[in-house]
Write a structure and sequence with these properties.
Blueprint lengths: L27 H38 L8 E2 L2 E2 L1 H5 L18 H19 L4 H15 L5 H37 L4 H29 L1 H9 L10
Antiparallel strand pairs: 1-2
Amino acid sequence: MQHESPNSRGEEDFFSDDEALRTRSVDSARAQREADKLKDRINVYLEQREIVLHIQERSNARRRSDVPPRPVVFVDEQVSLAATLADSDSDSDGEDDHFRLWTVEGCLEAVSYIESLVNRFSRGKTPSALSRSVFARFCKAAGTKDSEKREKRIRGNIQYGINELYSFHEHIHRVQHALYQLTGAQSDEWSKADSVGCMITKYIAMISDVQNHVIGGNVDMFESSGLELFLFMTEP
């Protein structure tokens, strides 16, 4: 099947002329200003990410070396009464059954329990997968009819999640410190608690990174996504 040429109808030959010769040149000064602005924004994004990673590293270091806010204190291989009573509002001076928790076996049970709480919180997702899910939620909310309301709710949920994770980290810090006293820092038991603690701080870091971009707004979110600046993009 032959198509009729526009030239045969007396129309301009679209491909014959070189429009590029008559196109105005790009304003190089303006282009440079925009490039500089983008570079500045990227530097801000990267600085925020470094702060998040620094907090993660510092949290892990403190958990390994510092005494927790409510430490378990052992006296002659027995936990102090004051420490255990702080765990329960219902305990009285003569009725305390929390001694059994602060054994090696009890601490390992506590580690497994805290790990299960984290898995339930994350719905079984890895830190990167959970953060990617949070990002996707925000993207779906953007541009919708009630986007402002939905985005506000998402920001609130993100902060709630971060607070919850910090609570888990406080608990594992206490258990890890108890294991340090019972088994030392080179033991498999202490290492198990430490691995759970590191997992929690990784969740906190990746979700906090998303939170920073959410606070920055839609331009920040989509620009950082296009440039692959999110922490969750550093892992498969």
